[in-house]
Amino acid sequence: MAADEIAVIGGIDTHTDTHQAAVIDTVGRHLATEPFPTSPAGYQQLLGWLRSHGEVLAVGVEGTGAYGAELARFLSANGITVVEVDRPDRKARRDNGKSDPVDAYAAATAVLSGRAKGTPKSRNGIAEAIRALRVARSSAIKARTQTINQIRTLIVTAPAEVREQFRGLSTVELSDHLARSRPAGDLADPACAVRTALRRLARRYRALSQEIADADAELKPLVTRAAPQLVALPGVGPETAGQLLITAGDNPGRLRSEASFAHLCAAAPIPASSGRTNRHRLNRGGDRQANRALHTIVIVRMRHDRRTQEYVARRTADGMSKKDIIRCLKRFVAREVYKHLPHPGITAAQLQQAA
User: What is the CA angle 261-263-266, rounded to 5?
Assistant: First the structure.
């Protein structure tokens, strides 16, 4: 840094078409604000604009997992320290007002004050690839569930000759039978219209099932390649492992310890005592999908893992409720999962010591 050059901190409020950038100095004085287009050329202009005000110590970016994802990647690739900034709470917005420049300055101030200090996900590796594939898989599962529910609802309200024909069939038998059917007749007849609609829905169900199977075939080798030791743990499959990898991100080193990972997964116990009651409960924040993955692992282990079954029996004999036992098991699983996440540049001994 030159003798006459000052140190500055940037803040960026991200949007679909433009990013609003702001710059403050190290004592919090507002220096400038400017919008930039969300394009490679715009990112380059934004970076040059930031550096024109002095040495850039850090840049706070709102929405690094959404509108600001590519900008965060660009800044990090150019040697800029990017800090993830959460949206201000409602009280702060009421006190300070709401506009893009105000939000950009608030992002920079949050970095300066230390309120924002999180490292965003890099989103440039295999975990990001898994996330993209799982988005399509999740939507296919939701659509398939909706489709089979529509099929069964139509059957319930169908004329008796249609309803009795499909009574008692399993989902697979029902979809296969309906997909092969060839309804004929006048569509003005409710029975014919129902049969036609059921065939279309059944074919949609089968197409979605094939799409899910294709996604599973793509995801399983990717997840195994990313974290083979994680998939090998009891109760952990490609689906739950994939979600936990997404939660950790491509740079799990941003998680300072297994305790921070447990907190991120909403599996960190927090005090919930009052009066004569002395207990803890799980944090209700965090990544709910990661918490769901931990819950699935715990339920599988409670059914099939002897060590877990012995633990449940022992804690039940101690008078602990099933909910609290699951809470403890989630915390244990989070600790175990953290040890088997990919940690580039960290030796096994260092990871064991940190955990």
Answer: 115
